[in-house]
């Protein structure tokens, strides 16, 4: 079966959890029970990266405003990272999406129990692993990063 066209923005591809010689998916998320397109389909890696940058710029703006009043919390970039982690944890836990994800029509969903809330521990682990970039950049054939595989989640459209 021919592989779909991929670019360097898709990141390195590692085998998906459900991949095997008899179980090759035709589209990202097929083996997870997700549709090929539309609501609840897998969000692309590029779209997810743009959402992270939107969240980062929001936090950088807020950090710059805070830093103009006090430097006791560190420099602007340190404060930006702290705010980004807080935003990721709270957004994922309470709303299953960050502002960047919401602007691009995406959200985080559990794949082990469809319809269940993401929860605090999954939100914390996902955000901290995303902070280190590498786990989020290593995607499988379903387009899920190692941080999603480790927490039983996926970033979906809709």
Q: Mind sketching the topology for me?
A:
Elements: E1 13-14, H1 45-67, H2 76-95, H3 99-103, E2 106-110, H4 120-131, H5 134-137, E3 139-140, H6 146-151, E4 153-157
Parallel strand pairs: 1-3
Antiparallel strand pairs: 2-4
Gist?
This protein is mainly alpha-helical.
| Weakly predicted, low-confidence segments | none
Number of helices: 6
Provide the succession of SSEs: EHHHEHHEHE
Q: How many strand elements?
A: 4
- Main beta-sheet strand count, sense and barrel state: 2 strands, parallel
Helix content range of the residues, please? 40-55%
Protein described:
The protein is mainly alpha-helical. It has one domain (43-157). It is 44% helix and 9% strand. The chain has 6 helices and 4 strands. The protein has a two-stranded parallel sheet. Strands 2-4 form a two-stranded antiparallel sheet. Helix 1 crosses helix 2 and helix 2 packs antiparallel against helix 4. The longest helix has 23 residues, at 45-67. It is elongated, with a radius of gyration of 17 Å. The model has no long low-confidence stretch (mean pLDDT 87).
Keywords for this structure?
transmembrane helix, Pra-immunoreactive, mainly alpha, UCP021697, two-stranded parallel sheet, 6 helices, RDD family protein
